[in-house]
Amino acid sequence: MKFLHMRLCWALLAATLCALPCVRASNSLSAQAPAQAGASGAVLPRLPDGHPDLQGLWLKSAGGFQGLFIGSLDGTNFAAGGGRAGGAAGARGAGRGPAAPPRYQYTPEAEAERQDRLRRGYEDPEARCHLPGVPRALDQPGGLYPVQIIQDQKSVALLHEAMHDVRIIPADNSPHPRNYWAWDGDSRGRWDGDTLVVDVANFNGRTWLDMAGNFVDENEHVVERFSLVDRDTILYEATVTDPTVFVTPVQMRFTLKRVPPDQQILEYSCLEGERSLQHYTEEDGGRKRREK
Question: What would the pLDDT profile of 85-101 be if each residue is shown by its tens digit?
Answer without folding.
Answer: 333 333 333 333 456 78
